[in-house]
Design a protein that fits this description.
The chain contains 15 helices and no strands. It is an all-alpha fold. It has two domains: 181 residues, no CATH class; 205 residues, no CATH class. Helix 5 packs parallel to helix 8, helix 9 runs parallel beside helix 14 and helix 13 packs parallel to helix 15. The longest helix is centred in the N-terminal third of the chain and has 37 residues. It is globular.
Length: 430
């Protein structure tokens, strides 16, 4: 367990900083309006879908390039870096065109936002779409760094990004009036500034420290097999997270149909409920590294037991922490809102998230270990089937025809995590 904590400690530190940034973000948004918080929560659900696509490209590209480096083939690695860069640039251009040209359609027709929530979301998107592009380029840099055997640099750059974002939001006065923009656009601008700084530093480190060549393909050097290798692997990698984020987009639409109070409640409750899962996520990512090492050393029994020990720990601690948040919901939610209706709706969701945490704490530790054992396909298929064709129809049925509203959405989210957690645990024990 001590070895696992050494892997998981830095990851937990980064996740905690992410949480603090999110906490401050929604505190500032709550001062503008509860509908602003709900709007940004919906935008983040939509952008999360694109983030997962870029993350999958990053992971797949990193694996393919690392394989070329491992075979001592620098020319192939340089070509693959160039090919991956072109794929990223093409995908970023497509996403920017989609968001810029179809912003109103995406927010009103797809996400179901209306009134003030739609206006706030549109204002936020105008700047946040460029943050999406910079974060995508940062994922390209992450793929290059990790393929060269350096996993610490992406971690340190992510810490820098979140630290600068936190400092700008917390310490910098609001210059929205001087810049002739809205307060919600000012918040988005602070995030964009931190992203640009982190990306700039990534480029400096790459060109002056790593010095790995990038060879852009032309007609004579283009290889469809190399392109296919990256895209096929990316498709496998992103199936689970894209399924999750696609489900979140649909759920955001359901919350929007219930109303602005439901949107704000989801944003606030989701922020607070993310804390109990941080330990499980950190242990899960650390376990993925440990499992890979132990399996490589032929210690399969030790790998199985180490993951089960971390799972038992999180399954006990995370729901207890979630219960503690629920019991103190009134005082915690006062950081975001003074509306008793929003507070009551958020508290209701936090109660559902106690059940959700039982499944999520199991998922966050077992699923990464299964991937390390070579069963990423099982995890992805299970996530796709449980989230989309099973739980989304149940969420709609419980919330609208049966009339449970946000309670139906909260309980279905708990069902999703618990069902996937149970299936992944049974698979790990085989």
């Amino acid at each position: 367990m001590n070895r696992l904590s050494r892997f998981s400690g830095p990851i937990l530190a980064e996740l905690l900083l992410n949480f603090v940034v999110s906490l401050l973000l929604f505190r500032l948004l709550g001062r503008i309006a509860d509908s602003a918080s709900g709007a940004v929560g919906s935008v983040n659900s939509l952008f999360g879908l694109f983030h997962m696509f870029f993350l999958g490209l990053s992971q797949a590209g990193g694996i393919v390039i690392a394989n070329a480096c491992g075979r001592s083939n620098p020319q192939l690695a340089a070509r693959q870096r160039g090919l991956l860069l072109l794929i990223f640039l093409a995908a970023i251009s497509a996403v920017l065109l989609l968001v810029s040209g179809g912003r109103n359609f995406l927010l009103t027709q797809v996400m179901g936002l209306t009134g003030n929530a739609a206006d706030y979301a549109a204002s936020f998107c105008r700047i946040a779409q460029w943050s999406l592009a910079t974060q995508a380029l940062a994922q390209f840099m992450t793929a290059v760094f990790r393929s060269l055997g350096n996993s610490m640099l992406p971690f340190l750059i992510a810490l820098l990004n979140n630290s600068v974002t936190l400092a700008l939001l917390w310490l910098l006065p609001n210059y929205s009036a001087a810049l002739n923009i809205s307060s919600i656009e000012w918040i988005a601008l602070c995030q964009l500034s931190a992203n640009l700084l982190a990306l700039f530093i990534s480029f400096l480190l790459f060109f002056f420290h790593m010095r790995a060549p990038i060879e852009l393909p032309d007609r004579s050097r283009f290889s469809s097999a190399e392109l296919k290798a990256i895209l096929v692997l990316a498709g496998v990698v992103v199936l689970e997270p894209v399924s999750y984020n696609l489900a979140q987009v649909v759920l955001s639409r359901f919350y929007a149909e219930i109303g602005e109070v439901a949107l704000a409640a989801r944003a606030y409750a989701g922020t607070l409920a993310s804390v109990p899962s941080l330990l499980g996520i950190a242990l899960g990512w650390g376990a993925q590294i440990r499992v890979s090492y132990l399996l490589g050393a032929g210690q399969e029994a030790e790998a199985r037991q180490e993951v089960l020990r971390s799972c038992r720990l999180t399954v006990v601690l995370a729901p207890l922490f979630s219960l503690l948040i629920y019991l103190n919901a009134g005082s915690l939610l006062s950081m975001f809102t003074g509306d008793p209706v929003v507070t009551a709706a958020s508290t209701l969701l936090l109660g559902c998230f106690i059940l959700l945490e039982i499944g999520r704490s199991c998922n966050t530790t077992i699923a990464p270990a299964l991937k390390a054992r070579g069963e990423a396909g099982y995890v992805a298929r299970t996530a796709f089937v449980v989230m989309l064709p099973v739980c989304l129809p149940i969420a709609w049925l419980a919330s609208f025809p049966l009339g449970f509203g946000i309670l139906g959405l909260g309980l279905t989210a708990a069902l999703d995590e618990m069902l996937r957690g149970w299936l992944n645990l049974k698979r790990w024990q085989k």
